[in-house]
């Protein structure tokens, strides 16, 4: 999905929900399109501010929620108190390894895991929408330091 398709998705969603397609919401989406990897609301807020784009913290939070609802971004809890987000389009489904010492997040893709999930769903006559696997532990760098 490219940037204009993403904007269209958001625009359609806002109309359905009878929400105003404000400039701030689209600027926020543009900023997210430029970001790779995981980010939290505060990081996004800071990078918008650094560029002189005015969006309130409340706008950032509620727009992130909207983007999750319309499937443009994914929301994760990596064990700590705040949520993290990443783009949900233009890349394959992947899972995460999270280091409990340094907070490093390693992404991985494993076809066998995908197959197992499909099998489990089939056995339970369950339709899969999305899933996420998070493995908590200690990364190799931190193991060396111990
Ligand atoms: Zn680590
Ligand atoms: Zn990720």
Write up this protein.
The protein folds into two domains: 3-87, Winged helix-like DNA-binding domain superfamily/Winged helix DNA-binding domain (Arc Repressor Mutant, subunit A); 95-145, 2-Layer Sandwich (Dna Ligase, domain 1). The model has no long low-confidence stretch (mean pLDDT 89). By secondary structure, the chain is of the alpha+beta class. It has helices at 3-16, 23-34, 41-50, 57-69, 111-123, 140-145, and strands at residues 73-77, 83-87, 95-99, 105-108, 134-137. Strands 4-3-5 form a three-stranded mixed β-sheet, with no helix packed on it. A two-stranded antiparallel sheet has the order 1-2. One zinc ion (ZN) is lined by residues 38, 86, 94, 96, 107.
Instruction: Give the total of beta strands.
Output: 5
Bound molecules: zinc ion
Strand percentage lies at 15-25%
Distance between the termini: 43 Å
Please tell me what the overall shape is: globular
| Distinct helical segment count | 6
Task: Summarize the helices and strands and which ones pair or pack.
Blueprint: H1 3-16, H2 23-34, H3 41-50, H4 57-69, E1 73-77, E2 83-87, E3 95-99, E4 105-108, H5 111-123, E5 134-137, H6 140-145
Parallel strand pairs: 3-5
Antiparallel strand pairs: 1-2, 3-4
The structure holds zinc ion (2 copies).
One zinc ion is lined by residues 99, 101-102, 104, 139, 141-142.
Task: Give the key terms.
single chain; 146 residues; alpha+beta; Arc Repressor Mutant, subunit A; Dna Ligase, domain 1; three-stranded mixed β-sheet; 6 helices; 5 strands
Q: In a nutshell, what does this entry contain?
A:
The protein has about 150 residues and is of the alpha+beta class. It has six helices and five strands.
């Amino acid at each position: 999905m490219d940037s204009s398709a993403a904007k269209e998705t958001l625009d359609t969603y806002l109309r359905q929900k009878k929400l105003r397609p404000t400039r701030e919401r689209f600027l926020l989406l543009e900023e997210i399109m430029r970001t790779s990897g995981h980010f939290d609301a505060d990081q996004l807020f800071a990078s918008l501010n650094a560029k002189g784009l005015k969006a309130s913290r409340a706008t950032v939070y509620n727009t992130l929620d909207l983007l999750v609802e319309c499937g443009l971004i994914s929301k994760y809890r990596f064990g700590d108190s705040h949520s993290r987000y990443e783009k949900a389009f233009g890349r394959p489904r992947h899972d995460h390894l999270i280091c409990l010492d340094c907070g490093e997040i390693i992404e991985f893709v494993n076809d066998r895991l995908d197959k197992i999930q499909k099998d489990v769903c089939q056995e339970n006559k369950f339709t899969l929408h999305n899933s996420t696997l998070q493995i908590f532990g200690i990364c190799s760098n931190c193991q060396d330091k111990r």
